[in-house]
Input
Amino acid sequence: MNNNDQSTLALAGFLLQIKAIKLNPTKPFTWASGLKSPIYCDNRITLSYPKIRTHIRQEFVRLILEKYEKPDLIAGVATGGIAQGALVAQELGLPFAYVRSEKKSHGLTNLIEGVVEAGQSVVVIEDLISTGGSSLKAIEALREKGAIVKGMMAIFTYGMQSSAEAFRSAACELTTLTDFETLLAKAIDENYINEQEQASLIEWKQDPKAWSDKHLNL
Output
């Protein structure tokens, strides 16, 4: 799912450094779903750091050219994938479009903003993969327009089994710049967490709902 070890480790270090990803098993975060979690990810923070932003852009570009050569179009997924996708499209000299989370309630009621034509090959850019639900809705919207989706690329994935199964079912290849296992390895190596906290994070990944239920009163 990811690329070479050095690159994934380097990016994991960057994300921890700038607190784009925060780890705190003893004081869990509350996700929008209401679930408690020992990890919180907001990769939009990377846009505020030119060196890291450039690293991410260049890794996306390198992988796109290695895997798919040059597609006809880059598409971003709202909201986190919009800026990242536009940077990639600019670097490759390609058109860009993005997919909303839902249709506009006014005007042209667009779900996709920008020009997408039937038969165009597309690589889709996302910032984060959790369950994969919203990302795959974007894939479906592009396919309904007649686009040929070559694959999706994201900065980070929690590596949940449900998301892996969802991408397989949708016949969409997912490539990420770094992932949960790499992040934990880097976090231990750089003393962001101890072994007990690492064990708690691994337990969360195995069953996020059960972990949340156990930590509801923290």
Summary: The beta strands are 21-23, 29-30, 36-37, 39-41, 73-77, 96-99, 112-113, 121-129, 148-157, 174-179.
